[in-house]
Amino acid sequence: MSTAARPTGGVVSRTAIATLVGTTLEWYDFFLYGTAAALIFNQQFFPSLSATAGTLASFATLAVGFVARPLGGLVFGHFGDRVGRRATLVVSLLLMGLGSTLIGLVPTYDTIGLWAPVFLVVLRVMQGIGLGGEGAGATLMSMEHAPAGRRNLYAGFPQMGTPAGLVIANLAFLGTSTLAGDATFTAWAWRIPFLLSIVLVAAGLVIRLRIEESPSFDRVREQGEVARFPLAAAFQVGLPRLALTLLAVVANSAVAYVFMVFTLSYGTQHAGYDKQFLVLGVSGAAVLWFATIPVWTAVADRHGRRTMFLAGSAAILVWCGAFFPLLDTGNPALALVALAGMGLIIPVTHCVQGAIIADTFPARVRYSGSSLILQAGAVLGGGLAPMISTALLGSSASSTGVTWYLVAICAASLIGATALFRTVPEPQPGVGATRLPEFAGEA
């Protein structure tokens, strides 16, 4: 029998707050790049291209970070399942902060030519590796400390870091732009929010170093069940279940990144909205996203997350059909309705997808398995979505193709989630993944 003690209330709360702060800082760094890619980098790093081609190239460097995320997830997942969650989360935060700070120091194309986008891509890879290690690990750390019956609530704390990081990144950009003026901001002041990363990460490390190791990992280690090759063992869950889980979560990532990133370039270049209006509108919607996550995770703990997830998947499909038509009216009030709708609907599925993925795997391979699904979904969904949307827009000069793209990917996720939930038993309160014969440790 394991001697690992159930964490006290103070430890649980401190861990939840630490994971929220850490993921907020990581997403702040990641979203700084997304905002800059939409509004600045096409001018600074691809000045010889047309506006559309420059934006497409800028979003391509954004996608590079997503391609690097699975690598980070696999590396950090391996060591998270073998060495522990806590140490890997500290390293991931350092890697992300260093990458963002150095982006703030990269010379532009006018200074060093082609080396400028090359350095940008290298640092974007560093960011992607860092965030790839953070995503699954922070969810596991909070969820595995959770009291019985509150796994969804505590797994939702790190998910709140996504909209929180977006708000802080957008406000940092907007505040710097307002204080410096558009010309100065475009010339060099855009670097300031990136350089602030080093200060924020230092503060985040102080908080993160105070948390304790996950009780689930301690139990696995005490029982001598640490997997030698956790990723290979994670595949014992079965390819059909892995594929359905991936399909179920891919739409949320795609829709979120079109909303958070592509909307900024589309709204300013094609729909005629002011940059500050859009940044504030997206930030306001992200505040709604942040505020409603605890509500939805509490609902999931009380009534079950599967019906809620399916309803949220259907709602986001419907709203994707209305989103760009509302933006295309050119009416600021209707644009705010479109943005607010995203802020209210996205969190319904986003808040529990981390727990759904984590409960697919036993504790001894949960970091590796969760990272595999989460980061693959991020690449297929979020990483490609802004670039695909820009290409569709460029080919037709209309948002219709983008709308149908989002509706199609949402329909695929809804089908995948329905099939997944029909074939996999509902997890019981306080219990993790369905126990498999190959795994003798805590599920």
Q: Quick gist of this model?
A:
The protein is built from 20 helices and no strands.
SSE layout:
Elements lengths: L8 H31 L1 H5 L5 H32 L2 H19 L5 H4 L2 H29 L7 H9 L1 H20 L1 H8 L1 H5 L1 H12 L6 H8 L7 H5 L4 H31 L5 H29 L1 H24 L3 H27 L7 H18 L1 H12 L3 H24 L20
Describe the structure.
The chain has 443 residues and is an all-alpha fold. It has helices at residues 9-39, 41-45, 51-82, 85-103, 109-112, 115-143, 151-159, 161-180, 182-189, 191-195, 197-208, 215-222, 230-234, 239-269, 275-303, 305-328, 332-358, 366-383, 385-396, 400-423. The chain has one domain (9-215, 234-423): MFS general substrate transporter like domains (Growth Hormone, Chain: A, Up-down Bundle), CATH 1.20.1250. The chain contains 20 helices and no strands. Helix 7 packs antiparallel against helix 15 (275-303) and helix 7 (151-159) packs across helix 17. The longest helix is centred in the first third of the chain and has 32 residues, at 51-82. It is globular, with a radius of gyration of 21 Å.
Strand proportion, as a percent range, falls in under 5%
CATH topology: Growth Hormone, Chain: A
What is the total domain count?
A: 1
Shape: globular
Instruction: Summarize the helix and strand pattern as letters.
Output: HHHHHHHHHHHHHHHHHHHH
Weakly predicted, low-confidence segments: 429-443
Distance between the termini: 14 Å
Give the % helix. Answer: over 70%
Number of helices: 20
Please summarize the sheet with the most strands: none
Q: What is the typical, i.e. mean, pLDDT?
A: 87
Which architecture would the CATH scheme give at its second level? Answer: Up-down Bundle
CATH superfamily descriptor = MFS general substrate transporter like domains
CATH class: Mainly Alpha
Radius of gyration: 21 Å
Output the structural class. Answer: mainly alpha
